[in-house]
Design a protein that fits this description.
- With about 150 residues, the protein is an alpha+beta fold.
- It has one domain: 3-Layer(aba) Sandwich (Aminopeptidase).
- The chain is about 35% helix and about 30% strand.
- A hairpin with a 2-residue loop joins strand 2 and strand 3.
- The chain is globular, with a radius of gyration of 14 Å.
């Protein structure tokens, strides 16, 4: 059984940073490497205050997946999903488990959850679709084809 943990410590947040940095080329926003100091500031300002929810999945001794839930800056009735799975752990159900968990958290908190994926990231799009998201838009962002995914 896959166990999902809520990120409550800076140490956990730093573990999430390592996966996010490994997965950064799949990110739809910044693909820059996040430093320990940047992650500490993000934890203090956004996770510790409850503004952003963070989850992780640990397969001892490593964290193998993470999920983040951000509030939409313009619409209080929706949140945004960000998630990643370490390369060597893809295909074992961790992505689905983290997306299901962060989505349920987002539905409870906001009522609707949105996600953005690179159009060539078929694994992410497929996993989100299986969890109940639907593709609602195709567009280009910084020259990269994207899809917008939404919960019903």
């Amino acid at each position: 059984m896959i166990k999902v943990e809520i990120v409550v410590t800076l140490e956990q947040a730093q573990e999430v940073r390592l996966i996010r940095n490994e997965c950064r080329m799949f990110m739809t926003g910044s693909t820059d490497v996040i430093s320990r100091e940047q992650q500490r500031e993000f934890f203090d300002r956004r996770i510790a205050t409850g503004e952003v929810n963070a989850l992780l999945i640990r397969e001892e001794p490593y964290v193998v997946a993470y999920g983040l839930l951000f509030p939409d800056e313009e619409h209080s009735d929706r949140g945004w999903l960000s998630a990643g799975v370490i390369g060597s752990s893809r295909g074992y159900g961790y992505g689905r488990a983290i997306i299901e968990s962060i989505t349920q958290m987002g539905l409870d908190r906001f009522g609707k959850v949105m996600g953005e994926a690179r159009a060539d990231n078929s694994a992410s799009i497929r996993t989100c679709s299986r969890v109940g998201y639907r593709v609602t838009n195709y567009y280009t962002k910084n020259g990269v084809p994207m899809v917008l995914l939404e919960t019903p």
